[in-house]
């Protein structure tokens, strides 16, 4: 496994297992399978409603807690009392600390929530703090006005939404980039796309492995999800090949220039999130 060093020298595995859209009743087994496959970085969120099951898997795994890197995210309706919500997350996860806590969305009172994250990090209940779905300017604003820069920004990055300028800006600020939806949630039959499939065949790899490798070579942390144990093992097996410049040039031609999953710059998206109720968090 390769690691990225965060701004405070903490090490984070570059491959993580995400549990978004895994039903609570299936989460424990999925996380156990992921840990058995070799994952040590697990990514959940309050809004996923499966923190408790992630915690149960961690407890049953037999792996020393210090070997695991656990991330959760504060949902925006909890921003006015992020501290209390994180205490609930700690209880659900069954752990004394969380390795990384992110603000899940760039809306509502992000500064109030950020102050709580800073305080909890100082107290040692959180090891690292960051954001998700923020633009580079939003990251800079939060960091500069609070005097504490986010260490991570988790954003959508995949061959159809490549965001090279934003990635460069974040990395120049010392903010580690994590990619959610690296496989574009399967849109446009990405796993059989002729460009990606052609590269995969050349290296005797899968399309998913090519996408992961493309991200890793940009120093981007990859959050992948699979419900199949054999796929979990396969998705970790990406450190024995490299892409050449011709491969990367072909992948660049796939960029559509915007998300086709969720547009955070669309006022309708803001209204959707403002009215989106998540119970039990």
TrEMBL record:
Oxidoreductase found in the keyword field: yes
Site label Lowers pKa of active site Tyr, positions: 73
Listed Pfam families: Aldo_ket_red
Domain NADP-dependent oxidoreductase per the UniProt entry, residue ranges: 21-254
Binding site for substrate: 104
Source domain of life: Bacteria
Molecular-function GO terms, alphabetical: oxidoreductase activity, acting on the CH-OH group of donors, NAD or NADP as acceptor
Keywords assigned by UniProt, alphabetized: NADP, Oxidoreductase
UniProt-annotated catalytic positions: 48
Similarity comment: Belongs to the aldo/keto reductase family.
Protein name: Aldo/keto reductase
Organism: Pelistega ratti
